[in-house]
Amino acid sequence: MKTKHTFQICTIISAFILTVSSVYAQNEPKPIINASLAGTIIDALTKEPISGVTVQLEAVTHQVKTDRDGKFQFVTGQKLPLTLNVSYVGYASRKVIVDTSPTIIELTPTLNALEQVLVTSRRRTEQIQDIPIPISIVRASTIDDAGAFNVARIKEVVPTVQLYSSNPRNTTLNIRGLGSTYGLTNDGIDPGVGFYLDGVFLARPAATSLDFIDVAQIEVLRGPQGTLFGKNTTSGAFNITSRQPQFTPSANFELSYGNYGYIQAKTSLTGPLIKDKLAARVSFSGTQRDGTLYNVYSDRNINDINNLGVRGQLLFTPNENLKISLAGDVTAQRPDGYGWGIAGVVENQRSEYRQFNSIIKDLGYEIPYKSAFERKVDLDTRSKADNELGGASLNVDYKIGNGTLTSTSAWRYWNWVPLNDRDYLGVPAYTISAGNSAHDQWSQEFRYSGNISEKVSGVIGVFGLWQDLKTDPVHTEEAGDALWRFQQSSASQTQWAPGLIDKVGIRTKYGIKSTSLAVFSQVDWAITDKLHVLPGIRYNYDKKLANYDRTKYIDNNIEYTAEQLAAVNSIYSNQTFDVNADAGNLSGQLSLQYKFTPNYNTYVTYSNSYKPIGINVGGLPVIDGQVATDLAEVKPESVNHVEFGVKTNPSRNSFLNLTVYQTNITDYQTQVQTPDPGVNRGYLANAEEVRVKGFELDGSIRPWKFLRLNGALAYTDGKYEKFTNAPVPLEEVGGAHAFKDISGGELPGISKWSWTLAAELTTKGNFLNLQGNYFLGTDLFYRSKFSSSPSPSQYLNIDAYALLNARVGFRATNGLSAIVWSRNLTNKDYYEQLLAAPGNFGQYAGVIGDPQTYGVTLRYNLK
């Protein structure tokens, strides 16, 4: 099926590329050389020239941008006087009638000139400082210049974002420590962080690991947003906007080369197919990098990067009131990975005979490295992580009255073909973990947003999401011959012996069909110019149908005694269940916003939201000899959230924002580990009560024209208020109790303190006869220590670390730009995750952050 999906999309996109290429030159404007208009755009206050200003002749598509010195020139068939539309972010747009050439045009800066960033988070274009929502913006220039080609790099820019990934499927994307289960992913749970690309909800967490393709900006919304977005989001949303097709032909080409064999190529072409009516854009991205870990067993490097993606778009504008966008994309990863080295060994409460070091000694095995930071692994099963996502979407915007009616229809697919060595060792203990999966989703949203009256504006919408996720064809987990020694509790046990446990495993088939329907609305009522009331309401209906069938198997070529057969059969259990669950829920929020002045904006928000029922499809634990089928369903979360925020612009060249919040969750959905080898991904459970509170401070200042400083600080305190029946931590495995009251313990994955500080120096200059700006930029990211275990452990904690990134180069508005960059400049060794091995015999692995990387990027813009 995945080959068929890929072939169909690639065929469509290939035809689209040929079409764009063939008409590009034909449609490029060929001005009539009859008249010339030249001029300069300057700041009305400082009288300094402004580069990058868009200057367009009225009633035609012909437009230019000012150069580094604020100059522009038109060669046109029209005669003076001419009407120009002049616009630039941070300045009031102007319509100017020009009757002389050359001319000087002044633009007046808006009060908030530094950060007048336009966002679409509330389903309409607004200025970020006017919105009563804590939002962080990551723009295309930040992504491109910093080499941040996926979401994993964004967490170093927005400190309240946490992303953890041991492979693309097992990815946790959280905001303020909430959203997804920490650690290994269970397909039966919904994410709490919405991930949207051009208005389309992407349901699978693997989407966060793929390369950005021609992204314009990313808006990170913090806190529940269920009354604004189709899919319910209990902890926040990523709203990603790609660059749209343009009627003015342009092209961008980018090539990067770095250490570890890093090569990345990006291309984007756009232009008209039918003048003023139909435009197209096609974008390509390819990334390769050698592996950063060396597998001693196979004598090869692993954990490399091998990504390829293409996206095509059409924009049809038959009239000024109607805009239709059609987009298709496919992105694939084919890495040799992922595998992780042993980071440490804990002495648990099992007998000395069943301690990890005693076991491997008896097996005659020695770990061939002293530290995981040697970047070596020893894996006797080759790792694989083939990951492919793609789909198509149709978006229609139709202006009706004072608003816009939007329809977004989409189909998405995901195919996942992994192979993992889950014991992290060069001996055949847990040899195979292969959770092959296939996912299809269909979504439809209708939404109207705009002004209802002079005082009232808002958004109302309906949303439907249908998902079909299944094993493809089965999930397989298998043990090897060395597992006998892990199972043996004393030397006298003859039922465990070499050669008795080989190719013992389980094959699992399951499918989950999900339906999520919602009606949502939010209103902004301006009681006065300063006081706004923003009520929002949402009704959700969720239905999940699941079937789960797990069957154990053994090597029938081995002749077992009755005692040996019983022992082998005890390793894994057959499990079968069906779930048919549905529920409706009414939730909402209320915000009060008060604007003391245009530069000082305050708000307070209360919201109640929920996350739907979960289904355990990673295997159920065996408790007192019985499969815990009562854990097949996981109760929905109930979220109560309150926050207070202040957005300020102390001066025209600065902003400073503060948010204080607290979130309380009942029946928090978490994933926990167990010594049961048949549940090596962990299983879902409900913690009775969880609380997260904190504050966020972010700001920017440009004290001089050549210097800009950005910073963000986050304090996050997350704890289990009540969790009375959690599995014991790694060091307590084998004790008198299998479960423990961890009330008061800290939530995993949350650093109490995290911050980022960025500085950039710029100066005008020339490079290869091109006008532009030289720049030097640095980014420093810090996070304090955090727990890496759902049940707090004194051993599975990750120490604080800081990362320094830097870049230097030349940016040209049009033409060639060159950037030299480095990530993790100080080559800091740090862990991103610590993972207890299946069976919990004491060993745990470490997901290691990237070492120092560096390279050069050449970018060419043609307009």
TrEMBL record:
Keyword Transferase: no
Primary site of residence: membrane
Membrane topology: Multi-pass membrane protein
Domain TonB-dependent receptor-like beta-barrel: 365-818
Keywords attached to this entry: Cell outer membrane, Ion transport, Iron, Iron transport, Membrane, Receptor, Signal, TonB box, Transmembrane, Transmembrane beta strand, Transport
Protein's GO biological process: iron ion transport
Signal sequence range: 1-25
InterPro entries: Beta-barrel_TonB, Beta-barrel_TonB_sf, CarboxyPept-like_regulatory, Plug_dom, TonB-dep_rcpt-like
Recorded family membership: Belongs to the TonB-dependent receptor family.
Name of the protein in question: TonB-dependent receptor
Organism: Sphingobacterium alkalisoli
